[in-house]
Amino acid sequence: MPQRPPRETNELASYIVRVTTGETEKIEPPKKNSHAQALSALGASKGGQARAKNLTAKRRKAIAKKAAQSRWNK
To answer: Rounded to whole angstroms, what are the CA distances from 15 to 26, 30, 31?
Structure first.
């Protein structure tokens, strides 16, 4: 499996310094599979519409109220 740059903050900072000073080579993240991206986009565009079509007005209102309440609680 191809190597990825570290995610943890201190390790990432150390990695950036090592790459900048030339101690190590830059790690390129693996390329994304274009076929998988196309399939994902297809499903994503249909999912929300299908869900909205199946929800009742009462349920949509309840979801909206819950979302608004959680935004105001922040």
So the answer is: 9, 17, 20
What's the CA angle centered on 65, arms 70 and 68, to 5 degrees?
35
* pTM reported for the whole predicted model: 0.39
Per-residue pLDDT 10s for the chain (74 aa) are 557 788 899 999 999 999 999 998 988 877 888 898 888 887 777 777 888 889 999 999 999 999 999 999 98
DSSP string spanning 23-49? SSPPPPPPPP-HHHHHHHHHHHHHHHH
How far out from the chain centre does Cα 39 lie? 16
Tokens of 66: 């819950």
Domain boundaries of the chain, sorted by first residue: 45-74
Comparing C-alpha atoms, which of 22, 26, 23 is closest to residue 3? 26
